[in-house]
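Reviewer 2 asked us to include a model.

Predict the structure of this chain.
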Amino acid sequence: MPSFVLVPQGPFSLTHAADVVRRFPPLRHQPRSKEAVRVGFVLDGRHCSVAVSLREERGQIRVFYAGTREADAVARQVARIFSLDHDATGWPALAERDPKLGAVMDAFPGLRPVCFTSPYECACWAIIAQRITTSHAARVVAELVRAHGEVVRLEDESIGVFPRPDRLLDVTTIPSLPLVKVDRLHAIARAALDGKLDAERLRRLGDELGPQSLRFLPGIGPFWASAIYLRACGIRDVFPDEPITIAALGTLHELGAPPPRPAIERLTEPYRPYRMWVAFLLRVAAARGIIGDVSGRAAEIRASAAATRAGRRPGLRAAVPRWSAADTETS
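Predicted model (structure tokens):
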């Protein structure tokens, strides 16, 4: 069975990564294993179905794969998914700069962001999950995988993969989803086939143009454009303007809700160059109850942001993403 090795630079815990994968709604259809972390995904650029199995070997990560012979392409994507394409040797120093954050880091040693498997699959999740619960969205994804995805055999395990873009274009109806969402999924599939959702391309565009370039997708507004860029491209040093994250930061540092923008900038400046990693850590900690119940604070932040947007466009009700404390590891 073909494999390759990824060598983490700085602390990395495959155990914590496995726990995040297990709780990650877009991947709930994946098989569970105590021995390895197994994930199926559509390979960047090639749009073929691939499965991988990650195991820790003396501080290195051995990755077995099936579905393609292009080891380099698989290695790049796996490294991005598990944030192994970044140097984390400077990560522990954040605990010294911010002891309150350090206490949270101690609860999850070696945790790095686990990203969406690709901008394509993240964008599809964004459309499916809008205005329904994450549990409902996870069931829709699982049914799409079962009915229209491919199964890749790896280590005597059947691993289902989300439908390739060309296959998704053939899907005309999806149970429990309105037709408008199906049409939007088709638009995402076409964009993926045209190379407009390539992670490296979006990374090269940068922190402003990257998210902006995704706004052409029907149904993708500023919130999800940012989420696709940050959580599917593996961006390391942007602190997102997102309610749960800001609420968790405010709770950790005993700020008001919503925390004033200058306070957010002051607190997150010492987190460079890992501000997005901190944001991910805060969301995980909020989901596990380490920081405390941030739902009330997040609701206030969402309401404040909605009122501001509605004030700029009188007569319109701002669309607010549906989040709860249990959703904090989804994007």
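The longest strand covers residues 49-57. The chain is about 45% helix and 10% strand. We have added this to the supplementary material.
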